[in-house]
Structures are given as C-alpha cells and as structure tokens.
Amino acid sequence: MIVHETLAELYGCNRLLDDGEALARIACDAVVAEGATVVGQSEVHYVPHGLTIALFLAESHIILTTWPELDLLLVDVMLCNPQMQCARVLDRIQQAVAPAGRRIDHAVPRALSRSPAVPAPALRPAVEVGLP
C-alpha cells in the first residue's frame, strides 16, 4: 500500500507563529476534521523564538515548526488511512495562519510493506497550492 506524507512550506504567516497553544489547537482541529484521532502531543520552544509542535495520531503524525522572523511555518503531515487527505488538513491550517500567504507542498509516497518497494514510488514535483 502507498500512503503519502506531505511536507508543506507556508509563507506569509500571521502572528500566531509564537503562540503554541493556538497552533496546537489549529493543527488538532485540522486533523480531527479529517477524521484522525490525536493520541499525544509534544511542544518545544526555542530561544529567542520559534517552536515545534508534534501531534501523535492513531493514523500517524503532524509536526509544525515555526520561523516567526521569516513569517514561515513548515508542516509535516502523514496519514496512514487512505481515506484521509493531507491536502485538506493543510488547507485548514493555511486558512488559519496564512490565508493570504503562499504554500508549497512536497508529496512523498511511502510504501507500507515488509520490504522496500522496487522500484521505489516516484516523488511528485513540489506544487504551489492555492486555497479552495
């Protein structure tokens, strides 16, 4: 089975990049709306600014890392349920933190099997995504 992990860059983010509580709530709401179940959370704050939030899901994970000085948020989403779509999670996050900003998605196919897929699943080119 192939699942996709999506790595996204969100540019032009708002002031929420230093607000761990707000970002965790936004990420949680985004994955729960997609049908995922949050089973744990961790947060790290950096000096002088920035943070990383990891939500552990029954279906895998979502990780957000901020660079407030660049108005930049990096997001890593992996959902192992093929009915769930990383893009919809990212749309919800972008709407909350960068509605007028830009987003670049890098979809990484992951082969779920006992041995490496040969040939390996092809990487898709990065794409800029507009909000629906």
Overall description:
- It is a single chain.
- Strand 3 and strand 4 (60-67) form a beta hairpin.
- The two termini are 28 Å apart.
- Helix 1 runs antiparallel to helix 2 (86-97).
- The chain is built from two helices and seven strands.
- The chain has helices at 20-33, 86-97; strands at 2-11, 38-45, 51-57, 60-67, 72-79, 102-111, 127-129.
- It has a seven-stranded antiparallel sheet, with helices on one face.
- The chain has a single domain (2-129), classed as 4-Layer Sandwich (S-adenosylmethionine decarboxylase), CATH 3.60.90.
- The longest helix is centred in the first third of the chain and has 14 residues, at 20-33.
- It is of the alpha+beta class.
Features:
alpha+beta, S-adenosylmethionine decarboxylase, 2 helices, 7 strands
The CATH class name reads: Alpha Beta
Oligomeric state of the chains in view: single chain
- The name CATH uses for the topology is S-adenosylmethionine decarboxylase
How many helical elements? 2
The CATH superfamily appears as S-adenosylmethionine decarboxylase
Q: Roughly how much helix do the residues carry, as a percent range?
A: 10-25%
Distance between the termini: 28 Å
Strand content: 35-45%
Largest sheet: 7 strands, antiparallel
Q: How are the strands of the biggest sheet laid out side by side? A: 2-3-4-5-1-6-7
Give the number of domains: 1
The gross shape turns out to be globular
Quote the average pLDDT.
91
Number of strands: 7
Poorly predicted tracts of residues: none
The rounded Rg comes to 15 Å
What is the helix/strand order?
A: EHEEEEHEE
CATH architecture: 4-Layer Sandwich
